[in-house]
Amino acid sequence: MDWLSRLFEMMPVHGRLDLRCSYGAPWRIEQGPGNVNEIPYHAVLAGSAVLDDPASGRPLHLKAGDIVLLPGNPRHIMHDGSGAAPLTVRNRASLNFMISENPGSDQRLDLLCGHFSIAPPHDRLLRNYLPPVLVVSAGATDGEQGTAGQLAGLVALMRGETASDRLGGRAMLNALSTAMFALVLRLASETGDMSRGLLALAGHPRLAPVVAAMFNEPARAWTLPEFAQLANMSRATLARQFQEKLGRSPSDLLTDIRMTLAANELRRSSISTGAVAEAAGYLSEAAFQRAFKSHMGITPAQWRKAAQTSATADELELTKSAEVTSDIGSTSAGA
Description:
The protein is α+β, with helices and mostly antiparallel strands. It has 2 domains: 189 residues, Regulatory protein AraC (Jelly Rolls, Sandwich); 105 residues, Homeodomain-like (Arc Repressor Mutant, subunit A, Orthogonal Bundle). The chain contains 12 helices and 11 strands. Helix 3 runs antiparallel to helix 4, helix 7 crosses helix 8 and helix 10 crosses helix 11. The longest helix is centred in the C-terminal third of the chain and has 35 residues.
């Protein structure tokens, strides 16, 4: 399996569309920060926007077809660039999402705003290995089969769903948002524009096999010489490339992947801690216990208990919702 598919298999991402904005200049949006496990996104359907980049401090000029992700989840500001006081905004609820609009008629912006949710502690891995601000463009498509073309088609589907607001629209929009996340990461890794982060490693022709090996065989007793051989470079060059592009060593990335795998396995009550340790590539349970606590801040047993308690709470909430729905249905039938 390719590394990106393995990544999503290990840490499921759920997308959600929150808002469709329709603004005429002058306008201004202030958002964030969201919940700690959220990554905000904005997709420019029409018009243009300026994002005051919270990472570099430099303004980013966005055009139709641009999609921006903010893995750092900061408070951020978008505006039309005029510097004029923004017009009053009115929000109204549609069937499946919120619409925000103003009375302006010039230089109209059409914008989709949403977020991606990643369950803790997996959000930390993505946040550490993605740039604070990630921008890709689906405006200049590379044909129907290319990633940019696929992304443009997906955004067009979202635009159509928000225009018609039909039955099942929320489910469709959230599913399309989730797929958008995968396509944005795929496109970013293909363009080679990333100078740092996991996408920079995966986009490097000689480092990509190392990343793929880590995700596909995390339990293998990898050594630095083996990774260097996969990359066809010296151990010193490999270590330097990882440090320059990721700010971490190959073993750091491998440990993060192993701990993510272990955290998932510990949710299953039927598997022992020793079996989890073996699946994560540790020869002894004691070594795994030390590594897990050092990495996660709690022991595997504490993590398992917390995860199971959370799952039980979710099940109770679903049961309550079902009971309420049933009561409403009974009342309606009686009426």
